[in-house]
Amino acid sequence: MSTNDMILGSKAGGKKAAIGRERRLGLPNWLYGWVLPVIVLALWEAASALGLVSESALPAPSRIAEAFWHLCVNGDMGKHLGMSAIRAGGGFLLGGATGLLLGVFTGLGKWAERTLDPTIQMLRTIPLLAVIPLFILWFGVGEFSKVLLIALGSFFPLYFHTHLGVRSADRKMYEVTRILQYSKLHLLTKLIIPAALPNILLGIRLSVGASWLLLAVAEMMGASAGVGYMIQDARVYAQTDIVFVGIILFALVGKLSDSVVRLVERRCLRWNNTYKG
Amino acid sequence: MQITRNRLAFRTVHFLIGMTVPLAVLVIWQIASSNGWVNAVLIPPPKDIVDEFGRMLSSGELLTNLRISAGRALLGFLIGGGLGLAAGLWVGFSLKAERLLDPSLQLLRTLPHLAVAPLFILWFGFGETSKILLIAKGAFFPLYVNTFLGVRSVDRNLFDVARVLQFTRWQTITKLILPASLPSLFLGVRLSIAVSWLGLVVAEMMGSSSGIGYIINDARSFSLTSVIFVGIIVFAVVGKVTDSLVKLAENRLLRWRDSLGGEG
Q1: Residue in B with minimal Cα distance to A240
Q2: Would you tell me which residues 168-207 of chain B have a C-beta closer than 8 angstroms to some C-beta of chain A?
Q3: Alpha-carbon distance B117 to B189, whole Å?
Q4: Interface touch B229/A217, C-beta < 8 Å
Q5: Inter-chain contacts counted by CB atoms under 8 A, chains A and B
Q6: Which chain A residues are within 8 Å of B101, Cβ to Cβ?
Q7: Torsion of CA B138, B140, B145, B148, to 10 degrees
Q8: CA B193, CA B135: separation in Å to the nearest integer?
Q9: What residues of B are in contact with residue A217 (Cβ under 8 Å)?
Q10: Residue B225 and residue B229: Cα distance in Å, rounded?
Q11: For residues A231 and A220, is the Cβ–Cβ distance under 8 A?
């Protein structure tokens, strides 16, 4: 179907302008989005082949692809990516778990909310990146300060959304569970967690995003392995192609982890929907 | 009367309860550091931080650097936000532009904007250009996405009404589309400002000779922890204040919009 459309589009080349208004160039929708990137890439490649831009400022796309492949083959990529993933994962687990627990805690207890929530709201306004020098002074440039920074970054989104989710549980449902004499544990696992799940999953997505963002900064501040280190190291030696590879890698992994959480979200919420229905 | 007074009392009590934890932490912190239980270099007592703040304020060091930082953030925000607004409006209005531009912009959006900083430094050096461009890049996307969403969320029926009333294109934009997309526009502005401050911190720490970020980084190399604390608190307060200002403007402008909607 779509290939047919493509052939039609190219055949109708001469009449394109005339047909354009009605048929929107006759191209299938998904192809439209690729027009601009492909043109930009082609121009870029041509410009660097002709020597219009300096190789050290803007290496040709083919060179970036080559560097990408080279790094994949010699195992550097795997090493850096593995290190980064461990840091981001560790920080996310630490911060996310704390956020989840505290969120449930302040969500369930009125007193806990009144005493703890204002403090946490106050701490939230502190820009995390400005705290980096303090962390370096306190904990050195080692793994601990990096993981802690990522944990702090992933704590806040998950905390807020968990708190919000717990509070959004239907009051009527809550009364029903009391009539059915649910125990506290039952109440938590059968009503509150499922009701808060959409918000919690949103919080997880935001947390994962925040942890990748902070990972990039943490690794650039001082590290001896990881994707951020790879970028920083390449910058010092003006290996722009490797800087590009690093940036693309960050984008890809960030996008991928986001998609994974979204997939989980769709599954869990489907279950939730059928459960409710 | 009685009820309002009760409510006021209720709110003060809540406020006091909320303040217990921070106050307790501050008191314990002060006692612990003045008794030498914790290293005063790593965790200076709150009193030292306040003193340092007073000293930096009176010497004018704080205000000069704050002005420089604010200038950078503002310029970056204006460039990035302005472009984001323009691109969002354009893509929102035209289906063709959406198909052509939106996928590329969404692709660029996934690039972590802090990881791009080294590239900007390579291209534009350590000067002002790379800092402002970094801030502008960060400020662009929230405003673009939310403007686009706002324009697209305008009620189709209202469009038809505008056509029946023979609005010109300019009138359609100023009388219908802009007011209708104002809520998400404001959300975009708030997010953009937050990102601008974030980008500013990174840009100034990457290499700079003035600004609050520079003060923090400089203090770190001399282990002046109280100065770092002052810098962090200033960043937090300024970020909060700008956010509150936009929120205030939002409330005002949206109140106007609501009353207009009520009349019609």
Answers
A1: B119
A2: 197-198, 201-202, 205
A3: 22
A4: no
A5: 134
A6: 36
A7: 180
A8: 10
A9: 114, 202
A10: 6
A11: yes
**From the list B122, B201, B205, which residue is nearest A240 (CB)?**
B122
pLDDT, tens only, A52-81 = 877 777 888 888 888 889 888 888 888 888
Task: Give the gyration radius of chain B's Cα atoms.
Answer: 24
Token code pair at residue A156: 């806040």
Q: Are A158 and A103 in contact (CB under 8 A)?
A: yes
What is the reported pTM? Answer: 0.77
What average pLDDT does the structure give for chain A?
80
Chain A residues within an 8 Å CB radius of B94 = none
Asked whether B123 and A57 are in contact (CB, 8 A), the reply is: yes
ipTM of the complex: 0.72
Q: Which residues of B103-116 are buried (b: 16+ CB within 10 A; e: fewer)?
A: bbbeeeeebbbbbb
Comparing B156 with A46, the larger pLDDT belongs to A46
User: Token digits for B165?
Assistant: 């009333």
Domain ranges of chain A: 2-50, 69-276
CATH of domain A69-276: 1.10.3720.10
Q: Write out chain B residues lying below 8 Å of A231, CB-based.
A: 115, 118
Torsion B222-B226-B229-B233 (CA) sign: negative
- Taking CB atoms and an 8 Å limit, are B111 and A247 in contact across chains? yes
Kindly state the tokens that stand for B142. Answer: 């929230």
Residue type, A97: A
Task: Dig out the tokens for A260 from the structure.
Answer: 């994974």
Measure the CA–CA gap between A87 and A90, rounded to whole angstroms: 5
pLDDT score at B84: 94
Q: Select the residue of A29, A118, A232 nearest B18 (Cβ to Cβ).
A: A118
Shortest Cα distance, chain B CAs vs residue A190, angstroms:
31
